[in-house]
Amino acid sequence: MAFLEIGDAGRIGRQTLAQESGLGEGSTRTILRRLTDEGYVRTSTGGAELTKKGKSLFSSVKKSLSELVRAGDTQLTLGDSHVAIAVRGGGGRVKYGIEQRDSAIKVGASGATTYIMSSGRFAIPNGSTDCEKDFPSKSWAVLRESLSPRSGDAVILCGASDETTAKLGALAAAATLL
Q1: Which of 11, 21, 36, 66 has an alpha carbon 20 to 30 Å from 126's alpha carbon atom?
Q2: 36-44: long-range contacts (C-beta < 8 A, 24 or more apart)?
């Protein structure tokens, strides 16, 4: 999340990065140090910005991921706050969806459900081939409108006690498919 915030901002100060990403100052310093050590970010008194290597990775990631969107109140996954993301072309890398759920839970989310777009329908790996028919919900229209998923995409719906944790969970789950 911090990496994406830096890329979107161009240059961002540590305190602003902590606020925007929902992380504490200590965690933000640690993340910046790791990103710097890996050669993705450089820091100065003007803030943190992506290096050439970082910009290349950022561009690749942005092509693969949709924006994070609020999914509203839904029964399709656990939690009080729900966020969704699409991984372009990620459907073929989904095994059971459990891997994405586990990654989301590791960062504090309540749960995550992974859907694969197939023939214009939301499908669950080894389960329903038409979730909109089998699990009626207003959320499907929100996901279709806000994510514009295409056949072969993976759509991850993540729930958590708060929006920041839901976003972190969705990104952690999506990272398993990159």
Answers
A1: 66
A2: 40/3, 41/3, 41/6, 43/14
Q: Set out the domains of the chain in order of their start, with CATH numbers.
A: 2-63 (1.10.10.10), 69-175 (3.30.1360.30)
What sign does the CA torsion over 106, 108, 173, 11 have?
Answer: negative
d(CA 101, CA 134): 21
Within 13 Å and on the Cβ side, how many CA atoms surround 109? 32
Going along 37-130, which residue ranges are E strands?
41-44, 47-50, 69-70, 81-87, 111-118, 121-123
Q: What is the residue type of 102?
A: D
Stated pTM of the model: 0.88
**What span, in angstroms and rounded, lies between the C-alpha atoms of 142 and 140?**
5
Q: pLDDT tens across 103-160, in order?
A: 999 999 999 999 999 999 999 999 999 999 999 999 999 999 999 999 999 999 999 9
Give me the phi and psi of 78, to 5 degrees please.
Answer: -80, 160
